[in-house]
Amino acid sequence: MPYLKTSRRRFLKTVGNSAVAFPFLLNAGLLSGCGKRSSRTGVMVRHPVYLLKNGSVFLNGSFEKADLVVENGLITKIGKEKGGSGVADAKVIDCSRFFISPGWIDFHCHLGGIGVDFDLLGPEMGITAMVEAGTYGPETFDAFMNRFCKHAKIPVYVFLNVRKNGIQIKNIFFKSKPGIEDVDGARRLIDQHPDVIKGLKVRLDSMNAPDENPAYLADVTAKLGRERQLPVMYHLGNPKPSITDFLKMSKPGDIITHCFRKSNNSVVDASGNMRGEALHAKAEGILFDVGHGVGSFEFDSAKRAFDRDFMDFTISSDLWLLPSWFKSRTLANVASKFFALGLSLEEVTSRISSRPRRLLTVESEIQIGRPMDLTIFSIADGTFEYVDTGGHALTCGRRILPEYTIVGGNLIRAGDRDRRLFMS
């Protein structure tokens, strides 16, 4: 199958040049979930009018049974139709078993390079927009634009890396000392692409932070973020730097990602208590993001945070090559794990749809007269085991499965990968 062969070649090429290639390959489970893609997946249908009949529509934070009419990507009617379809020439979709929400956004993922392709981050996965979180810097951004943004089926927003070449395997393991950044180049790109570049991203942890000044690159990025009034997304990994270092330089609207990772550097401290500085930062307008990935989400940290009513966050996959094979797998899978943690369907839905849409200043609510991409999904009942990145398991009786997306007036069948991985 071409996709799997290509992905495996890219995976081997990416990790093959690093000293950690062997453990990556050993743990990645490269053969799991492989199988033929459904011919229905990703099929795009264009029709001027859709009538989504009798679905549960996400309106003002809750689901209500309603018919929804979409004309050329514009919401034109919300309500119950009596008798027939009530809309001339409408393509009718029976949504009586489905839920309809503002289009999902993966607020932290990686496209190309160390990342994955559109077939794992596009509308066939239920995703209607994404944030490319720092894979590209000033030296590599133009190539990214030419390869991906010009051909994207969905909006792709970027949090630009001030590091010259962004995130690559080789620079994850080398110190981020002065000279690796290109602030002038980042300024130029911000001016050239204001509709695409929505923020800045910095990735620092114990593997690549310089001993003499661990937060050096973060400080450079924070200053540029203040200058250009752009949010900065800070990556939490093994310290140093620590979450305390990042919070000291953060401004309202900045984002701490991997917020529920293990307690040596998360919103929860080593004693299992909420960090006071994280609670204070939340009150001051600092934002938080899950960024599940391959090693950045633990159930215990999340549960302890929820016990302190720490509930303001976005749910994102941090999907790149490794978590595309294990751990994250899909955005719907990551979102479903929060059922096991006790969140309601409404709480999960807002964190992958309305909330990230608001942060990106795009239309966030389903309203008459407004343009809106939509995700149509179902809830599967069964016994599902969810595992965090520390290997801890929780069992839950529900799972989110994408069914369709409507993007720019196009209807796309979705969810084949989730059904193949988790329902077979």
UniProtKB/TrEMBL annotation:
Taxonomic superkingdom: Bacteria
InterPro entries named in the record: Deacetylase_Atu3266-like, Metal-dep_hydrolase_composite, Metal_Hydrolase
Family matches, as PROSITE patterns: PROKAR_LIPOPROTEIN
GO MF term (any one): hydrolase activity, acting on carbon-nitrogen (but not peptide) bonds
Protein name according to UniProt: Dihydroorotase
